[in-house]
Amino acid sequence: MGFQTPTIRTRLLLLSLVLIIPFTVLGFVNLWDFWNTNRNYLNQSLEQQANLASKAFEQHLLAQRQPLIMLSTLMARGENNFTIQDYLDSAVKTRPEWLDLQILDNKGESIFKQNVKKSDVNNNSVKQLKGEADRENKFTVESVESDGKKKLTLAMPLSEQNTAVAQIDGVSIKDMFDNLNMPEENIIIVIDKNKNLIYQNHQLPEGFPNSETIDSIMSHFKRTDMESGTIEIKNSSDDINRVYGLSKIGLADAIVAVGKPTSSLYEPARRKFIRLAVISLLLTILAVTLAFFITRGITQPMKRVTEIVRRFGSGEKSVRTDDLPDGTIGELGSTFNKMAEEIVERQKELEKLDRLKSSFVDSVSHELRTPLTTIKTLTHVLRSDKISASERKEYLQTIAVECDRQIE
Q1: DSSP 205
Q2: At residue 233, does pLDDT exceed 80?
Q3: Which DSSP string do the residues of 106-146 spell out, in sequence order?
Q4: By three-state DSSP, how is residue 180 classified?
Q5: How confident is the model at residue 7 (pLDDT cuts 50, 70, 90)?
Q6: Per-residue model confidence as pLDDT tens digits over 80-121
Q7: By three-state DSSP, how is residue 103 classified?
Q8: Residue environment code for 185-220, b if the CB has 16+ CB neighbours within 10 A, otherwise e
């Protein structure tokens, strides 16, 4: 038998296959790129939440550190014991979350203690933190636990090898994180440099985080030497993979981790990927009879969607898929537009929260600085022997009024 010439149908089928296979491969490559782009953006979103939590915690620490800076100023100026003791009592009395404040000498013995609240401070932990603050010669933060409650201990070196040590109720940290209004399913933990938990939210399962998870988080920063990032860890206590957004807290030398189960984080994107893959496969089968037109109709819109998603992931938040044709690709574009709007809106809310925090800190700083400046100026004037008794009385009255303002 001789060679049989292929029929027109066979030729058209072969031609269709020749045209379809490359476009099919290209379509799945674009889909995979779309999946990776979405996954990377979800990771970046989690990292941004960690950065927001880190900044909020750092602002919280800055506010708590302010009284210690004032103590350092008073000690450096050589203020008398009465003034220093009065400031210690006032600082603790006007801050409900503060449990204790004291000044230790170079031997770790307390030379000044606050007298307005009952203190159950562990002297060994206080001395240990003092030693660490003295060695590093900087503001130091550590987490301690007593009576089943988390407490935050702050230490700051003063003049003449003295150290101010304050202890704060951990509830204030919870209130601060609650005000960020992060998704309820997110896990939030804060770890100090000694691998102690400074904070953990109520969403944590029992036995979490275990030492393996904490070690993995700490090792990631040592290995990458970055200020923020993401990492996926499987926790052995509940056998769940989680993705964590990580961010360093420079002031406290600590790390904030915001985690979410991998299945929960990627599930919406995975469903979209599977749906698009199925649609692409069906269109590929249909394109056997209409190879050129259907392949062209699939490839170009998908390229456009992929490019827009890539640009969006690179920071162009204003790009949208407004010029896609009707049908499945158009539905994909509408879904992407809706997702993009939700992401942009969430980012605006986070920026608004950041501005509110900054405004609050500036306002509080102003309200503290103005009366303190008046008191400081009048104190210098009162040291002079050239003022009259009536002027002295008037200045003292002004100082008393300014002190009452601060107490209120």
Answers
A1: P
A2: yes
A3: TTS-EEEE--SS-----HHHHHHHHHHHHHHTS-EEEEEEE
A4: coil
A5: very low
A6: 889 989 998 998 889 888 888 888 888 778 888 888 888 766
A7: strand
A8: ebbbbbbbeeeebbbbbeeeeeebbeeebbebbbeb
Residue of 43, 65, 49 whose CA lies nearest to 365? 65
- DSSP for 319-370? ----SPPSSHHHHHHHHHHHHHHHHHHHHHHHHHHHHHHHHHHHHHHHHHHH
DSSP 80: -
Task: Classify residue 139 by burial, with Cβ atoms within 10 Å: 0-12, 13-18, 19+.
Answer: buried
> How far apart, in whole angstroms, are the C-alpha atoms of residue 269 and residue 39?
7
Q: Which amino acid is at 72?
A: S
Can you read off the two tokens belonging to residue 315? 């920071």
Dihedral angle, C-alpha 170, 173, 174, 177, nearest 10 °: -170
Write the pLDDT tens digit of every residue in 158-217.
877 788 888 888 888 888 888 888 887 788 888 888 788 888 886 666 667 777 888 888
Contact 155, 163 (CB under 8 A): yes
How many percent of the chain have pLDDT more than 70?
77
Mean pLDDT calculated for residue range 349-368: 78
DSSP 161: G
Average pLDDT over the chain reads 77
**Torsion sign (Cα): 275, 280, 283, 288:** negative
Distance from C-alpha of 285 to C-alpha of 280, rounded to nearest angstrom: 9
Placement of tokens 């827009």 in the chain: 308
Q: What span, in angstroms and rounded, lies between the C-alpha atoms of 296 and 53?
A: 46
User: Would you place residue 2 in the very low, low, confident or very high pLDDT band (cuts 50, 70, 90)?
Assistant: very low
pTM, full prediction = 0.56
DSSP codes joined into one string, 218-284: HHHHHHH--SEEEEEEEETTTTEEEEEEEEEETTTTEEEEEEEEHHHHHHHHHHHHHHHHHHHHHHH
pLDDT at 268 over 60: yes
Long-range contacts of 265-268 (CB under 8 A, 24+ apart): 265/42, 265/46, 266/39, 266/42
> Cβ(57)–Cβ(257) under 8 Å?
no
Measured CA distances, 285 to 33, 276, 301 (Å): 22, 14, 18
Strand bridging mode 187-191 / 163-169: unpaired
| Per-residue pLDDT at 271 exceeds 60 | yes
